[in-house]
Amino acid sequence: MLTAALLLLSLEVPMAKPPEPLEEIFPLTAIILDAEVKAVQRSDPDDDPQGKDLPRQVVVLTVKRMLRGALSAAEETAREVVATKPKAPFTLKAGIKGPYLLAVDAKTGERTILGRYGPDSWSFEKIERKLAELQPPHLQK
Fold first, then answer.
1. Over the stretch 119-131, which tens digit does the pLDDT of each residue have?
2. What domains lie within the chain, and their CATH numbers?
């Protein structure tokens, strides 16, 4: 029995990577939302079915509250943001809620969801604690 247990412990089991540290994500972040996926507008084809990353998606987020950053006038009025989920090890579907940290492309205005696991990367509490600790100037209220 002990031999079997030791054998199991010695096997290399692939572990999921942890989320990126917020210290690395905040410099890329322009908007922090409490939001829910309203709809998936588009999903790219899966060009690597054996890979760990799932295809890029474009989603509509319904904004419940703004934690940091600013929305465009149209987004503010609609309380909706169109955002791109890059190729990553998660997929989004309508109803997924949580904190969404978004990068904003300075040229195109495209919003990109940050974090290896999207809204499951960090809790609201951890985000708020790190904002208070680090006080990134571009993410001040």
1. 999 999 999 999 9
2. 19-43+53-139 (2.40.50.120)
